[in-house]
Amino acid sequence: MPFHEKLNLLMNITNTTNSTLARSVSLDPSLVSRLRRGTRFPAKNENYIKSIALFLAKHISEEYQKAALSNALNIPAKNIPTDIEALTDLIYKWFYDYSLQDAATVRGFIDTLTHPTFKKISVGIGNNIDVKDYSKSNKIDTLVFYGIEGKQSAALEFLSLVANNQSPQTLLLFSDEDIEWLTSTPDFIASWSALLMQIASKGNKIKIVHTVGRDLSEMLSAIKQWLPLYMTGAIEPYYYPKKRDGIFQRTLFIAPDTAAVVSGSVGKKIDNTANFLFKDKKTILALADEFYNYFSLCRPLMKIFTASETQKFFATLREFEEEDSDILITTDTLSTITMPSKVFNSIFNRTKTNLKNNFLFEQELRIKNFEESLLKHKFTEIINIPDLKEVQLEKIKIAFSDMFSETQLFYNIEEFISHLENIIRLLKEYKNFNVTLKTDYSISGFMLYVKEDVGVLVAKSSTPTVMFAINESNLTAAFWDYLEPIIRDYNKSPSDKINVIAKLEEAVCELRSTTETGTFYNSAEKN
Asked: I need a labelling partner for 47 at 20 to 30 A (CA). Which of 349, 358, 458, 515 fits?
């Protein structure tokens, strides 16, 4: 059960209004409203979760209330504590367990994103899978398959028909049925994935409507299934932004020039449902109309950018950074938003791009907007100070440089020093700018750039770069809540900022010293 459903349940059985709860735990009523609607996840470093649990525990005394709570927690009513402190702890853990699960889910998603097998798909992947010859059944316009195995068979036949079609087209995919049929069988996943790769390699595109009403774990699991295809740029993902009752569910897989698969179910009961595969052109077009009628009510779930879409990427980055909100960011290296213009210019002098002036203009606009935003909003960056020997050997990557260069670029020592010095300047000049130094960040190869209640940029930062721009509220909040505890654990007092500045200045001094004394590692070691 998502947090907002748990909160709603307890507020309903205790007859607690938004304003009453807000007043009792010193929250803004609008925040309570967002927590109840599920458009805001609870921040783990705030005390208000425990305060909410205490308030609600004090108002659970009637037997019907205890019965409702025991049913929700799936424990006997006699095990519901009568002691307020114990009951508060029980409710708090019930709330908090969900938050811990979310963090693990996000971490798993990032791990999948950065896994080395998820590279940009090259033409030809999936061509070794057998594609069935359906010439003998071309006259059969309708085929029916039953249950979960039938749904899998229908999907594979549908994809095989599309793979046999020599003319690229745009597939239309939607399913809010129980996801078990897609994820439960390894052999099916392998065949499904290989056929989709083959279809993408032939120039087909996909419009898919994801179901964000699923819990976070299920939703990110579904997205992970599509990650290799996302990295080809072949998919446009969308979502329906409003609540649905989830009783009647439907699957529509449509290739307008080839075939369509349709099924429906009630709740999660898909074991004995009928799954229809249609090849009749009139039926396919009617189903395509149905899909587009639903699609017109949907919004983009994410925009996906590869290194070949630099201009679009910078346009989205500009739009994202112009939104007003607090920010958390972590990257493998130093972020480009804190990179001074002179460093940006120096880097571009080493590239062959004829768009240098355009990119430099964009960077100067970003810097201006960034420093203006620091007057109103907090910006916290997680930084790993690299081994200074790696800096001297010019092995520190410049974040996302393959978005504007043919190859991955690396800092020279002067550029890296200048970037660090600019970060020190920002720390001294702006109280809203903070840096968390972390040396044991176990997952690398990605960037998270989150604006609270606005959106998130998630990227695989290893070459080739793939960037996902997401503005769906639940996903945004989940990524925010993933980073927040990391920052909380390392920034526990105002003196931490002073310590961060001291450590950065120490790194600059050491690098300056090697520059002045000429104690560099020789070129043979560098290579």
From this structure: 458
Q: What is the pLDDT of residue 362?
A: 85
The whole-angstrom separation of Cα 237 and Cα 172 is: 10
Classified as helix, coil or strand, 278 is: strand
> Kind and range of the H or E element at 197?
helix 186-201
**pLDDT on residue 460:** 80
Termini Cα distance of the chain: 54
Task: Write out the DSSP string of 307-354.
Answer: TT-HHHHHHHHHHHHTS-S-EEEE-SS--GGG--HHHHHHHHTTS--S
Query: For residue 225, how far is the Cα from the chain centroid?
Result: 13
Q: How far apart are CA 75 and CA 80, in angstroms?
A: 8
**Residues 317, 347: one domain?**
yes
Residue 201's Cβ-side half-sphere holds a number of Cα atoms within 13 Å equal to 18
Domain membership flag for residue 120: no
Pairing state of beta strands 379-383 and 274-278? Answer: unpaired
Residue 423 near residue 435, CB atoms below 8 Å:
yes
Same domain, 310 and 387: yes
Spatial CB neighbours of 472, under 8 Å, sequence gap ≥ 6: 212, 239, 301, 302
Domain limits for position 275: 135-300
| pTM to 2 decimal places | 0.69
* Mean pLDDT in consecutive groups of 10 residues from the start of the chain, 527 residues: 83 92 87 78 68 92 88 80 87 71 69 54 41 53 90 93 93 87 79 88 92 66 72 84 78 95 86 91 96 93 80 86 91 89 88 77 91 94 87 86 76 94 96 84 75 88 80 83 72 74 93 71 45
Tell whether 311 and 285 lie within a shared domain. no
Specify whether 317 is located in the same domain as 409: yes
Number of domains in the chain: 3
Strand order of the sheet with strand 446-451?
302-306, 466-470, 455-460, 446-451, 327-330, 379-383, 433-437
Measured between alpha carbons, how far is 118 from 459 in angstroms, rounded to an integer?
A: 12
Same structural domain, 469 and 320: yes
In a shared domain, residues 250 and 172: yes
Are both 390 and 413 inside the same structural domain? yes
Q: Which three-class secondary structure state does DSSP give residue 172?
A: strand
Instruction: Give the span between the Cα atoms of 380 and 127, in whole angstroms.
Output: 46
Number of C-beta neighbours around residue 119 at 10 A: 15
* Count of C-beta atoms within a 10 Å radius of residue 335: 20
CB 318 within 8 A of CB 413: no
Rg value, the chain, Cα = 26
125 inside domain = no
- C-beta atoms surrounding 476 within 10 Å: 22
In angstroms, the CA 166 to CA 199 distance is: 10
Q: Which amino acid is at 177?
A: E
Locate 448 and state its tokens: 């998270």
Closest CA to 464 of 303, 231, 235: 231
